[in-house]
Amino acid sequence: MTGANKIFxxxxxxxxxxxxxxxxxxxIIMGAAAFNESRFPTVIPWQRTTLQWFKAxxxxxxxxxxxxxxxxxxxxxxxVVVPIGTAAALVxxxxxxxxxxxxxxxxxxxxxxxxxxxxxxxxxxxxxxxxGGGIFLIVLxxxxxxxxxxxxxxxxxxxxxxxxxxxxxxxxGASRMMVFRRVLMPFLKPALLASGxxxxxxxxxxxxxxxxVRGFETPxxxxxxxxxxxxxxxxxxxxxxVIIVATVIGAIAYEVARRRQAARKLP
Amino acid sequence: MGDLFNxxxxxxxxxxxxxxxxxxxxxxxxxxxxxxxYALRPNxxxxxxxxxxxxxxxxxxxxxxxxxxxxxxxxxxxxxxxLVALVTFLVCYxxxxxxxxxxxxxxLAIAMLLIIIPFFINEVLxxxxxxxxxxxxxxxxxxxxxxxxxxxxxxxxxxxxxxxAMVYAYILFMLLPIFNAIESxxxxxxxxxxxxGASRWKTHTRVVIPHAKAGIATGFVFTFMLxxxxxxxxxxxxSPGSRWFTEIIYNWFFxxxxxxxxxxxxxxxxxxxxxxxxxxxxxxxxxxxxxxx
Lengths: 267, 293
Fold this sequence. Notes:
- The structure holds two protein chains of two kinds.
- Chain A is mostly helical.
- Chain A is 78% helix and 0% strand.
- Chain A has eleven helices and no strands.
- The longest helix of chain A is centred in the first third of the chain and has 33 residues, at 61-93.
- The relative contact order of chain A is 0.13.
- By secondary structure, chain B is mainly alpha-helical.
- Chain B has helices at residues 2-40, 59-66, 68-102, 105-120, 123-133, 139-146, 159-183, 187-195, 200-211, 213-228, 232-237, 245-254, 259-283, 288-291.
- The chains are: A mainly alpha, B mainly alpha.
- At the A-B interface, helix 1, helix 3, helix 4, helix 5 and helix 6 of A face helix 1, helix 3, helix 4, helix 5 and helix 6 of B.
């Protein structure tokens, strides 16, 4: 290896190290600050290690209220987006080339629309009909773009579907409804479960869209953002740490389940 | 359409079509049309609605052009979002190249995991993490002062903080499309380029980047759009001097009480984003269908 290459390699390794630090330092500091007694969340100076902020978080009724709001919204979103997203994928794949590319453009357009605009347009439309911001509008506004994700995931799975299976079932005397329920749905099931999981994640973490249609509701993200501006204590860090640990465990469990399923199919 | 009815029968097909129409007409088209309607009407007291003053005009949109503070913030948001996209690209490109062409399978798996984990964590929490890191008496300033790099704490809140947090938030949207594009580049092309005497720089500018053009364009489009439409980073990490266009829109709705002007501003933001998306994709000759992957 030449000298120039060695230097290049060293610089690159350093860049990788800085990049990793950039990715994780903010999260680690945020998590660590939850254990520091200091009233403003920080790690320097370290005053005393304490669990008091976890207790404070646990005792915060407003936090539980906002968590409940987020969970309720997420459940409703899943119920709305999975059927509509699946229907959209099925309708789209049965269209002919020209109509298909037009419909496709329309169907992915919410992904190219800034989140605040989705919230604003939903709010305006429903105010016109006398409905103000609240759970209903949050679900509706979030669903508008989360449906796109479901549609794309179901479409990806549909591409690997062998339609002769449907014909075989029809030939054996199954009704169309039965073919749908017994042949297509079981095939789509992994995609439906995965898109349901993604929908929950997207719903719980949304802020930009939710902010405009929330009315007097305070979902978790709004709760946290308000705390940052009005009175940040490490109790918020404690909450953040719990959410992070829960998401990482969820992500790993999901990945393990996916690999196990993939491994089962191989032989 | 006939195919749909053949395949699923009348009952199921009707259900599917109804669901899709509810979404497209009720949740995508109607809200946007109503927003356009709002944007083109003046803000009137309820009594004057439908009266002689209730006419369509571009007044709310031209207001943006004449109100100098808003106009400055609008253009600043555009160039700052472009800057976010550019910086994100510069940060991501070497990693993407390394992951796609140089890393072993094991290294790749670890790198993917490390990059994806922060993105499972929601944007508000990621911004909060930066808020704490960059606080005036926070860890970053303590470290810098401890190392003797600065004497007094630096006020990061403002443009610098917003830039750092936004780049952080959108790394994945830039990295994955570029990674996918570079991965499909045949390694023999890199070897050929080197054997023919091209420098490392030339290999990248003449071989890798042209090949990855579609992925890079996709990354730029997404990052720009997300940055321009972001509310959380500028509202938590910004300062009065670094206001974002979305904050102005928010104020029209919830503080200024002029929904019509707010709708007009939101419409401008939407049109801007769509225009940037379509022009960039046209220039890079990328299909919309490839972007959504």
